[in-house]
Amino acid sequence: KKNKFFAKQTESSDDSGSLSSDDEDEVSKDIIYKWYNNRYFAIKYLGKGTFCRTWLMYDIHLNKFVAMKMYYSKYHEESLHEIKINKLLTYPKYVVHILDHFVINKSQCLIYELLGLTLLDLLDYYDDDIPLNIVKQICIQIFKGIDELHKNNIVHCDLKAENIMLKQLDVPIKNIIDELKKIELDKMFEDLVTKNLPENYNEFDKNKKKNVKRKIKIRCIKLLGESIKNKVETIENSNEEFKFDETDIECKLIDLGNSE
After folding, report:
1. Average pLDDT over residues 32-52
2. Cα dist. 197→184, 185, 190 in Å?
3. Which of 121, 135, 163, 199 is the S-S candidate for 255 at Cβ 3.0 to 4.6 Å?
4. Exposure of 96 by Cβ count < 10 A (0-12 exposed, 13-18 middle, 19+ buried)?
C-alpha cells in the first residue's frame, strides 16, 4: 500500500509535469530566484499543464506563500479566458480563486492560493482504496464547488482527479516553507529597510520620506531575495515520507481555463 504514490514522487515523468533535477534547473534558470511585479519571489518549480508552468512564490506584501501559473505566451487568449471566468466568482470557498494577475515578457501570470496534492495523488497514496470517511468529505466539497460554479452559470468542462487539489502539501514544499518561516522574512525585510534609511530621514518632509522609503524598499527587496535564495539552497532534501492528515481534509476545484 502507498508504493505507487511514493514511486510517483521520485520518478521523472515529463507527462506528469515532474522533472529530474537537471531538467528542473534548465526550466528554472530564467524564472527562479527573481522578483515578479516587485512583489512575488520565485522559489521552486511545482509542475506544468498544457498551457502553463506553476511555481512556488513568496508574496512580500502579505508575507505568505502562493502559487503562480505562468502561461506560455502562445496561450494568451486561454489565460484571459481563465481570468474572465474567475471574475464571475466572488470569494468561493471550494473553487480556487485568482488573487492577482499581471503580464511578464508577454506571458500572463496568475497568482493563486497555494495548494498541495491532487486527488489523483491521494488515490495513489491509498492504492485506490481511500477510506469511506475521507471519500464522503471530499465528495461533499466537490459538490459544493460545482454548486458555486453553477450558481454563477459556470460549467467546469475538465473535472477530473488531477483538477481537484488538496490543501495538504507534499514533504519537499512543506519543508521549504517551514524553514523560510523560521527566519521571519517580513521582519527581515523591515529590518533591512530601517537599516538602510539615511540618518537624517526624520528631518524629511512627508513626500520626501515617501519617495526615499520607496526607493530603499526596492533595493531591500533584492537583498531579501538573496537571503531567500541562500536559505533555500542550504535546505537538504528530506527523507521523510508524506503522511496524509485525515483530520485536516480540504480540497478545491482548479483549472477553470476550459470552463464555460
Report:
1. 93
2. 21, 19, 11
3. 163
4. buried
Cα pseudo-dihedral 5, 8, 9, 10, rounded to 10: 130
Could you report the per-residue pLDDT of 102-129, keeping only the tens digit for each?
999 899 999 999 999 999 999 999 987 8
Cell numbers for 102: 499581471
Neighbours of 236 (CB within 10 A): 7
The better pLDDT of the pair 6, 258 is held by: 258
User: How far apart are the C-alpha atoms of 2 and 38, rounded to whole Å?
Assistant: 41
Sign of CA dihedral 116, 175, 124, 9: positive
- The yes-or-no verdict on residue 3 having pLDDT over 80 is no
Residue pLDDT, tens place only, 134-159? 999 999 999 999 999 999 999 999 99
Q: Running DSSP on this structure, what letter comes out for residue 242? A: P
Model pLDDT, residue 17: 52
The sign of the torsion formed by the CA atoms of 215, 216, 222, 224 equals: negative
Strand partners, 101: 110
| Cell of residue 182, nine digits | 523560521
CA 1 vs CA 63, 77, 118, 130, 248: distances in Å: 38, 43, 18, 11, 21
Please state the pTM of the whole predicted model. Answer: 0.88
